[in-house]
């Protein structure tokens, strides 16, 4: 699953990551907790599709993200499941770039519901926003609706994942602007084909001839995030209905999602199943919660 071209691109990511304070950057010094592994297995389809070595890398990056980013709840309790789902959303798009860090995010703020542009969560004041990143007050921050965060991992058919959507915006922003052209990921020869294809796909949305989320027609930046959600949530369907779009997203993220699609699912674990932590014990005797 990991492309050789990752090696070539490590130097590119060093340029964008070198401004992150290495003296304050924390790395895991203890094993990935077994109970966290169970949560990933039960909730994160992308994780379940990885082989054993890739799972270890995913766990390391998730652990690293949790150590270096604060999750704050506004009128909600923040659980370890919340943190693991947020971290998984951050790691999934950049999984094949092992040196990647997000230098433009420090805090994730969880809201109890949708909110409006004034960050209000109560009253009938056009509360339609599920997630947001940006400048000003939001510099270095992300706001997510907690229900939307969880829905992105429980609904496997809707082509949507709010948290992945917002992290893709942060990736897009690393070249200086959120404009739908992620220069930090997009190899030069694909830039013009990407822009031309985005314009074409947005026109299809306007003409009601596309199954892509209509919100993607808002502008190029939103299209990139919406298309990325589709890519990670329903890769086989995207490859079938939008092969050119699938191919370019494959080049951007260095991931063949269609290849891993057969195993892209969450796993239900019963009390008598073998524990996913490879202890050899039954789940109820090992990581199960009574």
From TrEMBL:
A cellular component term, taken from the record's GO annotations: cytosol
Gene3D superfamilies in UniProt: Collagenase (Catalytic Domain), Glucose-regulated metallo-peptidase M90, N-terminal domain
GO molecular function: aminopeptidase activity; metallopeptidase activity
InterPro entries (UniProt xref): MetalloPept_cat_dom_sf, MtfA_fam, MtfA_N, SEC_C_motif
The protein, known as: Peptidase
Organism, scientific name: Tenacibaculum caenipelagi
Phylogenetic classification of the source organism: Bacteria, Pseudomonadati, Bacteroidota, Flavobacteriia, Flavobacteriales
């Amino acid at each position: 699953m990991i492309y050789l071209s990752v090696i070539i691109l490590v130097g590119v990511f060093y340029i964008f990551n070198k401004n992150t304070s290495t003296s304050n950057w924390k790395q895991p010094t203890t094993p990935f907790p077994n109970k966290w592994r169970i949560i990933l297995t039960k909730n994160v389809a992308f994780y379940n599709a990885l082989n054993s070595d890739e799972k270890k890398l995913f766990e390391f990056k998730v652990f690293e993200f949790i150590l270096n980013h604060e999750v704050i709840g506004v009128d909600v309790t923040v659980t370890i499941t919340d943190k693991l789902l947020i971290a998984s959303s951050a790691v999934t798009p950049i999984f094949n770039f092992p040196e990647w860090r997000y230098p433009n995010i420090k805090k994730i703020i969880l809201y109890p519901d949708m909110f409006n542009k004034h960050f209000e969560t109560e009253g009938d004041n056009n509360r339609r926003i599920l997630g947001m990143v940006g400048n000003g007050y939001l510099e270095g921050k992300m706001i997510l609706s907690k229900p939307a965060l969880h829905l992105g991992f429980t609904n496997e058919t809707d082509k949507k994942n709010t948290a992945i959507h917002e992290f893709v915006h942060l990736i897009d922003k690393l070249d200086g602007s959120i404009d739908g052209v992620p220069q930090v990921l997009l190899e030069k020869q694909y830039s013009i084909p990407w822009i031309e294809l985005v314009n074409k796909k947005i026109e299809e949305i306007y003409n009601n001839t596309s199954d892509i989320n209509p919100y993607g027609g808002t502008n190029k930046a939103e299209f990139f995030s919406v298309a990325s959600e589709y890519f990670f949530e329903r890769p086989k369907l995207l490859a079938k209905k939008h092969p050119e779009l699938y191919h370019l997203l494959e080049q951007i993220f260095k991931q063949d999602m269609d290849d891993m699609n057969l195993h892209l699912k969450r796993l239900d674990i019963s009390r008598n199943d073998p524990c996913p932590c490879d202890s050899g014990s039954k789940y109820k005797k090992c990581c199960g919660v009574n």
